[in-house]
TrEMBL record:
PROSITE patterns: CNMP_BINDING_3 (PS50042), MGS (PS51855)
Lineage: Bacteria, Bacillati, Cyanobacteriota, Cyanophyceae, Oscillatoriophycideae
GO biological process: methylglyoxal biosynthetic process
Gene3D superfamilies reported for this sequence: Jelly Rolls, Methylglyoxal synthase-like domain
Record GO cellular component, one term: cytosol
Residue span(s) of domain Cyclic nucleotide-binding: 13-111
Name of the protein this chain belongs to: Cyclic nucleotide-binding domain protein
Signal peptide: none
GO molecular function, one term: methylglyoxal synthase activity
Residue ranges constituting the MGS-like domain according to the UniProt record: 139-265
Amino acid sequence: MSEKADLFQNLETFKDFYSEEIELICEYFSIHKFFDLQEIMPKTGRDTSFGLLLSGEISIIDDHQVDNPSRIAGDFLGEMALLESIDRQADFIAASDGQIAIMTFDDIENLKLKHPYLAVKLVHCITQSAVENIRNSGIRAHRKYMILMVDETKMSDLLDWVQKEIDILYNIPIFAPEWVAQSLQQNINLNVKQVINSNVLVGGADTIGAQIILGNIKALVCLRDPLARRPNRASIDAILRLCDTYQVICATNIQTARAILSAFT
């Protein structure tokens, strides 16, 4: 095993990864030294990378004065921007000398192209770490988002429903697949909060599951034809199981979609 891979091998974070997997993953990270009181990964607008602390300690200074615990070896840094595809609100200040491994979002996509299983496994590891950090901090997630998904045969039904409920939906941050978002914008002039691109990992379909696990989703509307054969049925079923597990309100037809709007008013 390479010297670089040894830095990852000794972290509890990668206990479920084989040595060969760690060897492959670490090639997509760049290693950087930092010094006490140095600002790490300065905010520059839209985040394009996340970090993994290899040694030392980093303090998290939140704009909203939220009490965040320090990050130590094995902890991820900036992972919420990765999972939620939003701008980071906190500053990272070194509390000691140390080393950090940084991976760009583009590198995750490159890893997915060559080793798709490994990329998904890494994102799952990051998601689990984020969930544990939220639980340990005692900070409750804000269930405020709605996910809109639909079969192509039900798109007209979705547009009719959105048009009738537009006054309410305008005030709800919405996640939707790219083609649904385009249709909503073109036909109703409704802009979604986040577009889900099924072809990528960062901001892609796995974002739905991550958002549910993180506790940010209040409701899911998934209009579908129960008799139609769908190539993505396994993915839809997995999302619905997550909703059951994490107590997310679900609607799979227009009548139930109308009913769940009361949760937002």
